[in-house]
């Protein structure tokens, strides 16, 4: 099975550990861009520094068939290119032991793997929508079509939640210790959301099983950070040039990385904290909140208003002084004051670092990519801060502008009357509202009335509705660039 990539790795980047000794002790759901440049690489570097056997079995539940096929063809090795503003460092990841895909291996093979005794952690990067949770409440969305199908047929699941519950059932029935469920998605209190979704589902299928999960399984929260844009033909060509062979599983990312993990594992864990950027703590929630509000909140702001303003990438928005200032002000004036951080946390330093990371010209992070799935992202990136300011009577104009930018974006038409390819689980609902109202301020109240995104409280606040309407009006009449400059 040795391929050219492994030949290269043998020659230039041979790891210090014996790959043959690794076991699939982690099953990871979501072999996407992010995981390759984050957990898989952290695990590789942890293995370099410790004598342990924590290997990863990669699974994609939805899509990514070609990626898994290709990964197998290259002996489960792949490249990560860390691109700084001036130089690039290439690493070959050796922590992956095997891979599965339900499309060609079948659902039972996936479940059997998750139920294997040595599997101690099931981790996930399945996107916000993968939790099948109501974005406003974080509880299982029982109307979700995947969940409905899995409730009807729990032994043949499709959703990640369905797989986890069924795999835990198999383990309990076979008297095998459970695994820890570790979410690595950008979801506020991701462990708590994963737990709520799993338990809500389990209680609907088997109360006794639900009780066993509640008593025996842990769901640590994690804060994950590294900007990893989707691979493009350009990044893959660059990797080919750097490595000397083609690597369709290769991925480029920024040099920065951070991983703060709640130390709450039921069946052992690797010492990821031997690697720079990873640490275990007792309470991750403040760190998650800081990252989601300051980084992801400003990212979404820049994504919607940047896309509408004609900027294809985040680094392009940073060339406009108004966008740069608005992003910084949003972090420091709208988000930072809502946080409750451990003493000594330097939020201003963090904001400056974020602006520097966004400016990295080597990283082509598309505004369109970040704009995806806004219905799942807006509540956690802006909702909590908004409620904070509304209660305190403080200024939140950056948040109102961000929400208005998103509302304009989901109209599906840009400032040059070109169609926007809006990707969102709720896109049909948006289309219906825009069909009824057109691009007109009357749509604002309707969109703010979507309970799954905004709950029931925000729509009742007239001054909030007026503020978003004012921002929306400015965007649709003067354009996004002028609207951002007005801040
Ligand atoms: P990607 O598009 O490369 O991969 C998405 C992954 O999610 C695929 O493996 C796919 O199989 C899986 N997936 C999609 N829908 C699913 C569903 N309904 N159920 C189960 N699995 C599903 O995206 P990428 O970049 O890997 O990001 C994935 C997530 O990782 C993000 O949504 C975010 O929560 C988190 N993340 C991403 C960062 C980035 O910069 N790319 C940084 C920090 C976190
Ligand atoms: C981005 C994030 O796609 C998005 O919504 O905001 O994936 C962002 O790149 C990461 O969270 C950075 O850690």
Automatic annotation (TrEMBL):
Species assigned in the record: Photobacterium rosenbergii
Keyword entries, A-Z: NAD, Oxidoreductase
Domain Mannitol dehydrogenase C-terminal per the UniProt entry, residue ranges: 283-475
Domain of life of the organism encoding this protein: Bacteria
Cited PROSITE patterns: MANNITOL_DHGENASE (PS00974)
Transmembrane segment boundaries: none
Name of this chain's protein: Fructuronate reductase
A Pfam family assignment: Mannitol_dh_C
One GO term of the biological process aspect: mannitol metabolic process
UniProt GO molecular function: fructuronate reductase activity
Keyword NAD: yes
Stated family: Belongs to the mannitol dehydrogenase family. UxuB subfamily.
Domain Mannitol dehydrogenase N-terminal, first and last residues per copy: 25-273
Gene3D superfamilies: N-(1-d-carboxylethyl)-l-norvaline Dehydrogenase, domain 2, NAD(P)-binding Rossmann-like Domain
């Amino acid at each position: 099975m040795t391929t050219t990539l492994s030949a290269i790795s043998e020659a230039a980047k041979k790891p210090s550990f014996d790959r043959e000794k690794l076991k699939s002790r982690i099953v990871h759901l979501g072999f996407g861009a992010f995981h390759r440049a984050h957990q898989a690489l952290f695990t590789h570097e942890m293995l370099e520094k410790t004598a342990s056997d924590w290997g990863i079995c990669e699974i994609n539940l939805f899509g990514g068939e070609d990626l898994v096929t290709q990964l197998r063809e290259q002996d489960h090795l792949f490249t990560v290119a860390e691109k700084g503003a001036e130089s690039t460092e290439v690493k070959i990841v050796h922590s992956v032991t095997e891979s599965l895909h339900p499309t060609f291996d079948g659902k039972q093979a996936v479940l059997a793997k998750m139920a294997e005794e040595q599997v101690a952690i099931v981790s996930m990067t399945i996107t916000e929508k993968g939790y099948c949770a109501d974005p406003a409440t974080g509880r299982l969305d029982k109307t979700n079509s995947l969940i409905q199908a899995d409730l009807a047929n729990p032994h043949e699941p499709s959703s990640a939640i369905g797989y986890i519950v069924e795999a835990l059932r198999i383990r309990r029935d076979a008297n095998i210790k459970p695994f820890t469920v570790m979410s690595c998605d950008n979801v506020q209190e991701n462990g708590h959301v994963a737990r709520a979704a799993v338990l809500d589902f389990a209680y609907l299928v088997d109360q006794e099983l639900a009780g066993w999960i509640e008593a025996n399984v842990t769901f640590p929260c994690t804060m994950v950070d590294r900007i990893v844009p989707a691979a493009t033909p350009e990044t893959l060509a660059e990797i080919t040039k750097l490595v000397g062979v083609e690597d369709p599983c290769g991925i480029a990312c920024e040099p920065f990385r951070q991983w703060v993990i709640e130390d709450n594992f039921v069946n052992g864990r690797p010492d990821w904290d031997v690697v720079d950027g990873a640490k275990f703590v007792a309470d991750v929630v403040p760190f998650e909140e800081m990252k989601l509000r300051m980084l992801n909140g400003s990212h979404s702001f820049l994504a919607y208003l940047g896309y509408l303003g004609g900027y294809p990438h985040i680094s392009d928005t940073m060339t406009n002084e108004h966008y740069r200032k608005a992003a910084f002000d949003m972090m420091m004036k709208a988000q930072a004051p809502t946080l409750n951080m451990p003493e000594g946390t330097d939020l201003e330093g963090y904001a400056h670092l974020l602006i520097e990371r966004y400016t990295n010209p080597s990283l082509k992070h598309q505004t369109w990519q970040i704009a995806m799935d806004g219905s799942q992202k807006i509540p956690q990136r802006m909702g909590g801060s908004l409620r904070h300011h509304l209660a305190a009577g403080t200024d939140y104009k950056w948040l109102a502008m961000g929400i208005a930018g998103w509302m304009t974006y989901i109209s599906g038409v840009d400032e040059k009357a070109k169609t926007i390819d809006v990707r969102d689980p709720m896109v049909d609902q948006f289309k219906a509202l825009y069909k009824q109202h057109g691009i007109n301020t009357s749509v604002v109240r309707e969109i703010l009335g979507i309970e799954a995104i905004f709950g029931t409280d925000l729509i009742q606040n007239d001054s909030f509705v007026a503020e978003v309407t004012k921002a929306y009006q400015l965007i649709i009449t003067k354009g996004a660039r002028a609207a951002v400059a007005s801040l």
